[in-house]
Records
---
Amino acid sequence: MSNIVEDELSRPSSIFKDESKLSIDYVPEHLPHRENELKQLALIFKVVLERPGNSQKVIITGNIGTGKTALAKNFGSQIVAIANRRGINIHYIHINCRRERTSFAILNKIVKTFNPNIPRRGFSTEELFQIMKEDLEEKNANVILTLDELDFLLRREGEELLYSLVRLFDEQLNAVQRLSLIGIMRSEDLFRSLDLSIISSLQKNIIRLREYTADQLKTILSERAKEAFHVGTITDEEIKFIADIAAKQGDARYALEILWRAGKIADAQGIKRILPEHIREAKSEIYPVIRKDVLRDLPFQHKALLLAISRTLTKERAYVTTSETEKVYKIVCEEYNIRPRRHTQFWGFLKELEKQGIIATEISGNGMKGKTTLISLPDIPTSILEQEILNLLEGVR
Ligand SMILES: Nc1ncnc2c1ncn2[C@@H]1O[C@H](COP(=O)(O)OP(=O)(O)OP(=O)(O)O)[C@@H](O)[C@H]1O
Ligand SMILES: [Mg+2]
């Protein structure tokens, strides 16, 4: 007789075999439908491996969720592994320009890979450039630097850093070219608006990623599902259903988030497989405008402000004034033991959140005393935003 107790205890309590395979930061080893682009990168960077001291510059463009980040990271880890086997000193550094918010922070991060103990303050941008150059020379190292979400840096600070990086080793005649660049951006229009000298040095190698089709999303989803779920918990029909939903945008991130959430819903209901109803529910819970990684990467002050906004609006109101919100913001800061920033900075945070498309602001029309700025939240229920932010802030208090 089989042992009922043992059977029950060894039955997996979740349909997930390994949930981390669907997390935001996981980079799959195999990227279906990006084989040609990987090959293109390999062809471009061949020279760096064969004749170290030569550098390359590449731009990758494509809409949201087309695999830009995954492509660069996957390529980076492969080329480093190959270089290591051949005894060539190549480092891959991946920097997200939305997360590292200034040129200074970006440079600091690069320098830190070689000098982990370097103090955060005390150096000018020029000095950091100099340190980076000396490090590379001294260690006979080559770097492939990816500036991801470059759109943010360019919109915030203009093109100065990019310009300096492109020129880094140029002033010395015959200097060894140790720094290769991969710039990732969504908008090719923004690239076209840059300084002509930057365009001319980068446009030789532009890789454009197209939105995924429903069929392509199907392969991607089923490979990822195999890594993340136990056998028999999802069928081709459900995979096709998700692929068709996400094919409107051609966005693999959206597709994978539906898959992950559908799994969580199935688990929460104690059902041992993903059903189409779970997918419908999952879809209704996702607000594409407010991406999980965007919220996660916001500095604490911005998160506190968003929490304040959702608490001021509550379920009852469509618009709130900045002064009401600022009062609640101060209370939130107190709750988390953080010093509230002054009004001008508060204002800056507000504008930043608006730029990222998370909130909307407008100047009040007639009917209010004087003019004031009104804040609203058109794309997500306040209760959901509040919960997401609370989850992110967990542990800060
Ligand atoms: N070809 C693929 N195979 C497997 N997974 C993929 C593939 N393309 C993208 N993904 C996955 O889809 C998600 C989104 O991809 P990625 O983050 O690379 O998009 P992106 O183009 O950088 O988007 P964004 O412009 O928003 O930064 C990631 O989880 C990534 O692992
Ligand atoms: Mg990306």
Note: The beta strands are 57-62, 90-96, 142-148, 179-185, 206-209, 320-321, 360-363, 373-376.
---
Amino acid sequence: MPSIEEEALKIIQSRPDGVLQSELWKILGIDSRKCSRVVKKLFDGGLIDRTEFRDEGIKTYQLTSRQQAIDPALFMAGEELIPCIACDLDCIVEQCPLILDWMYELAITEVNE
Ligand code: SF4
């Protein structure tokens, strides 16, 4: 089960413009004080930025992720998952037959789309 920090980060990452802290605690179903602690942990960990924001005159923070979530589709060539995931070979990319095969599959997939 993901921690509340992981859930919060996922929500923040899912929105390119970020999320207001005053909305985040409602989305997470926690109270605003606990949300402040979660946000502080994420901020102190360098995972998010926070910018002061006035929402109908009330001070809150716009929370944005320093890294956006990666689209898993980018790791696929058709049905083929990129071989680098969990690869434990000594990597010399230019000489790797696995990545060459995967790139070939990617080219075929893109031509067929
Ligand atoms: S390029 Fe080849 S050797 Fe390098 S990580 Fe990917 S699959 Fe492994």
Note: The chain has a mean pLDDT of 91.
